[in-house]
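TetR family transcriptional regulator
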Amino acid sequence: MVTTRRTQQERRDRAEAALLNAAAELVVQHGVRSLTLARVGERAGYSRGIVTHHFGSKQALIERLARATQTGFVPGLEDLPPGLDRLLRLINGYLGALGDIGLMHRAFLLLWAEAATASELAPIFRERDEAFRRDLRSDVAAGIADGDVRPDAEPDGVAVAIVGQLRGVGMQLLLDPHTVDTARLSHTVTDQWRRALRAS
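Structure:
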């Protein structure tokens, strides 16, 4: 019987994934203020020293968690060129994904909400939201250039409105999941933006 030894990088990646998962669990169960390197290590089955080795500080851990929780929320967009079709697929995919919201995305929404009052989170989530808005602005601008989006559409305003709507739906889902039918809502909201943006 042949056994394959994991490389050092594989062990490192596995430990980091376990630590991030433990951090997400703590955020979901107790909020970001409960997050300490020692508690994350204990939850993941590692020592605090391992957490410090991987992330260095609580702030660095939160930054890494914020990025990890947003990764791959709407798959399949990377291959699409910027424009109205990509924008509508993003909206539809985002709301559809909320219907099966997992631990990491739940943690992201909770961290995002806490960023309004937690000074250590605010810069991280300002940057994440700006990246999201920048992506949306690019889609609107490309749609205008292609002639698919109304020429009077304002990319900055559209981007702010879409991020607010999507994040707001996510927060409502966390607060009262039974009131949000994400499958139905994804079609309604996507159609709303299609009608609002499409060139005549």
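The chain has a mean pLDDT of 89.
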